[in-house]
Design brief:
Shape: globular
CATH topology: 60s Ribosomal Protein L30, Chain: A
Protein name: RidA family protein
Structural class: alpha+beta
CATH superfamily: RutC-like
Mean pLDDT: 92
Largest sheet: 6 strands, mixed
Order of helices and strands: EHEEHEHHEE
Distance between the termini: 26 Å
InterPro entries: RutC-like_sf (IPR035959), YjgF/YER057c/UK114 (IPR006175), YjgH-like (IPR038743)
CATH class: Alpha Beta
Number of helices: 4
Strand content: 25-35%
Number of strands: 6
Low-confidence stretches: none
Strand order of the largest sheet: 1-2-3-6-4-5
Length: 134
């Protein structure tokens, strides 16, 4: 197997090593980003849901930036929401702060019962800058 081309955001590598996964992997002109939650620097959940969503996007944006991307390069997003029926509107009022203008990426939203103490998680696939013309 070829060596994975892993992208680490500044200052959080220890969290990924401790939990044994890569924050993002470059492959074939795409960036595959692991699910990002609203964790504080020590990995603990941000207790306030709206702040947690903002932290999740901030964590995501740090990974995108480390790969030379922005959210504008995102082509596909998957979000996981605990108790989506009661929390979706609170979460979705924060999303436009980060989502940008249309056209938006494709989206899959999944309601779940547990996210390791978090209420929201987002994972994305982005086009890498060097692949932008393909």
């Amino acid at each position: 197997m070829a060596q994975r081309d892993v992208v680490f955001p500044a200052g959080r590598q220890a969290l990924y090593e401790r939990n044994r996964y890569s924050p993002a992997v470059r492959s074939n002109g795409l960036l595959f980003v692991s699910g990002q939650v609203g964790s504080r620097e020590d990995g603990s959940p941000e207790p306030d849901l709206e702040k947690q969503v903002r932290r999740a996007f901030d964590n995501l944006n740090a990974i995108l930036a480390a790969a030379g991307c922005t959210f504008d390069d995102v082509i596909d997003a998957t979000v996981f929401i605990v108790d989506a029926e009661s929390t979706f509107e609170r979460i979705w009022k924060v999303v436009p702060e980060y989502w940008g203008k249309a056209p938006h990426p494709t989206l899959t939203a999944v309601g779940v019962t547990w996210l390791y103490g978090f209420g929201f998680e987002i994972k994305v696939i982005a086009k890498l800058p060097e692949a932008a013309d393909s």
